[in-house]
């Protein structure tokens, strides 16, 4: 598998941006300045980026409560996201959505979603639009192992197959539905669930960008060609709790430390591309520095931005046709 240099650089930058964005939020949330809940995507970067590397602005995605990574991978502006999380008027959704409801329809980002299993039905609608409009678009739903148990998800798998929709269902299996291990709460396998609907199934290691990129490419190409939907099962791990403030008492001692040391998708990426001279360390270091500056500027701007005004409550409620 060969990947163009510009795609490699762009993908590394996206993964680094997600990592630094989330690590900075972990620090900032502890100050008490950020309202609401925050769910971090650290450790899962290769999944969102590996999938979205095959998508354009025509394509649509629906996210989860853990949506920052998907937003960045789809191209949503970091400064607008940071302002939104701080509840500021300059945010992507004018400060009224917060962390769990960031959306940018101009980029095909239908929104993060606090409803477990809320995304799959949305992308069935989006995929139907792509099919009827014949715009060659594909709709992608990201959801977790916990959401794979929801009726909305199973009904969406069925509907997508019945209507032969250009849809891809990406199960990001991080091993926990909140604080419950998927080994306890999820009966059978994701492969069996796909097979139950006659849906093509792809599986990959979410700690390996190249594995995700290849599997996602096959699944998305299948859907884009008019062959109907596909499921992509990504095995990965989250480094932080279900939400910021989660004590993670349900995780084994040393579990997260081992993940950071041995299963870091960014470390794996750097090792892979530098060992065979696809990219050099100086180029990657330059991206790291640029991203740090971008995140710092976004935090400073967000803290200085104005809060929504009372009249903003009535804005964006109804669509004007």
TrEMBL record:
<dbReference type="Pfam" id="PF00676">
    <property type="entry name" value="E1_dh"/>
</dbReference>
<dbReference type="InterPro" id="IPR001017">
    <property type="entry name" value="DH_E1"/>
</dbReference>
<keyword id="KW-0560">Oxidoreductase</keyword>
<keyword id="KW-0786">Thiamine pyrophosphate</keyword>
<dbReference type="InterPro" id="IPR029061">
    <property type="entry name" value="THDP-binding"/>
</dbReference>
<feature type="domain" description="Dehydrogenase E1 component">
    <location>
        <begin position="14"/>
        <end position="311"/>
    </location>
</feature>
<comment type="function">
    <text>The pyruvate dehydrogenase complex catalyzes the overall conversion of pyruvate to acetyl-CoA and CO(2). It contains multiple copies of three enzymatic components: pyruvate dehydrogenase (E1), dihydrolipoamide acetyltransferase (E2) and lipoamide dehydrogenase (E3).</text>
</comment>
<dbReference type="InterPro" id="IPR050642">
    <property type="entry name" value="PDH_E1_Alpha_Subunit"/>
</dbReference>
<dbReference type="GO" id="GO:0004739">
    <property type="term" value="F:pyruvate dehydrogenase (acetyl-transferring) activity"/>
</dbReference>
<dbReference type="GO" id="GO:0006086">
    <property type="term" value="P:pyruvate decarboxylation to acetyl-CoA"/>
</dbReference>
<protein>
    <submittedName>
        <fullName>Thiamine pyrophosphate-dependent dehydrogenase E1 component subunit alpha</fullName>
    </submittedName>
</protein>
């Amino acid at each position: 598998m060969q990947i163009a240099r510009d795609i490699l650089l762009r993908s590394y930058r996206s993964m680094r941006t997600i990592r630094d964005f989330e690590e900075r939020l972990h620090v900032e949330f502890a100050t008490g300045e950020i309202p609401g809940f925050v769910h971090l995507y650290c450790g899962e970067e290769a999944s969102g980026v590996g999938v979205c590397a095959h998508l354009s602005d025509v394509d649509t995605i629906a996210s989860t409560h853990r949506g920052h990574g998907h937003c960045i991978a789809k191209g949503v502006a970091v400064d607008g996201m940071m302002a939104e999380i701080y509840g500021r008027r300059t945010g992507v959704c004018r400060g009224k959505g917060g962390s769990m409801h960031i959306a940018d329809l101009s980029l095909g980002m239908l929104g993060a979603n606090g409803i477990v299993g809320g995304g799959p039905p949305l992308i069935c609608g989006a995929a139907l639009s792509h099919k009827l409009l014949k715009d060659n678009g594909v709709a992608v739903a990201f959801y977790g192992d916990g959401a794979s148990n929801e009726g909305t998800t199973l009904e969406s798998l069925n509907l997508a197959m019945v209507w032969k929709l250009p849809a891809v269902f990406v199960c990001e299996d991080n091993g926990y539905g909140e604080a419950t291990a998927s080994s306890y709460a999820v009966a059978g396998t994701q492969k069996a669930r796909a097979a139950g609907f006659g849906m093509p199934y792809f599986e990959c290691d979410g700690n390996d960008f190249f594995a995700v990129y290849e599997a996602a490419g096959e699944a998305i190409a299948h859907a884009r060609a008019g062959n109907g939907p596909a499921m992509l099962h990504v095995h990965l791990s989250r480094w932080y709790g279900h939400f910021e403030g989660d004590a993670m008492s349900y995780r084994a001692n040393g579990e997260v430390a081992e993940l950071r040391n041995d299963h870091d998708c960014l470390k794996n990426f750097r090792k892979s591309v530098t060992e065979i001279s696809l990219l050099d360390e100086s180029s990657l270091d330059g991206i790291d520095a640029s991203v740090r500056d971008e995140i710092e500027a976004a935090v400073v701007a967000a803290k200085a931005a104005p809060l929504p005004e009372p009249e903003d409550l009535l804005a964006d409620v109804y669509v004007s046709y």
